[in-house]
């Protein structure tokens, strides 16, 4: 369900999908995907609202997607043989994700 959250970075209310919720000392924090800006952000629970009916029908400007047949790679270092090889990984590392986001922007 799409809701509305206040993004402090953008300084405006945005439509968002809630991806995660975690408890903090001062309340709940929500991990959100802003559907019109293709950004991830975290917002406190007091900055979330229900989306009014008519606005929920507008199509999203951003969509989540995946790269077809692209698998994560990582650098495997063998200290015993003093070699380094690129090979498959279970997950994308943070540096690769940031590099890809910069390329897309």
Automatic annotation (TrEMBL):
Gene Ontology molecular function, alphabetical: ATP binding; hydrolase activity; RNA helicase activity
Keywords: ATP-binding, Helicase, Hydrolase, Nucleotide-binding, Repeat
Name listed for the protein in its UniProt record: RNA helicase
Gene source species: Zosterops hypoxanthus
A Pfam family annotated for this UniProt entry: TUDOR
InterPro entries in alphabetical order: Tudor
Reactions this protein catalyses: ATP + H2O = ADP + phosphate + H(+)
Residue ranges annotated for the Tudor domain, each copy included: 2-68
Enzyme superclass (EC): hydrolase
SUPFAM superfamilies reported in the protein's UniProt record: Tudor/PWWP/MBT (SSF63748)
UniProt entry tagged with the keyword Hydrolase: yes
Documented EC number(s): 3.6.4.13
Record bears the keyword Cell inner membrane: no
Gene Ontology biological-process annotations: germ-line stem cell division
Domain of life: Eukaryota
């Amino acid at each position: 369900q799409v809701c509305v959250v206040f993004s402090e970075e953008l300084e405006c209310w945005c439509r968002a999908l809630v991806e995660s919720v975690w408890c903090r000392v001062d309340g709940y924090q929500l991990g959100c995907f802003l559907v019109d800006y293709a950004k991830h952000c975290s917002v406190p629970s007091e900055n979330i609202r229900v989306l009014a009916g008519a606005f929920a029908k507008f199509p999203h400007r951003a969509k989540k997607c995946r790269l077809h047949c692209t698998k994560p790679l990582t650098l495997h270092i063998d200290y015993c043989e003093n070699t380094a090889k690129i090979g498959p990984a279970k997950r994308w590392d943070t540096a690769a994700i940031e590099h890809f986001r910069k390329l897309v922007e």
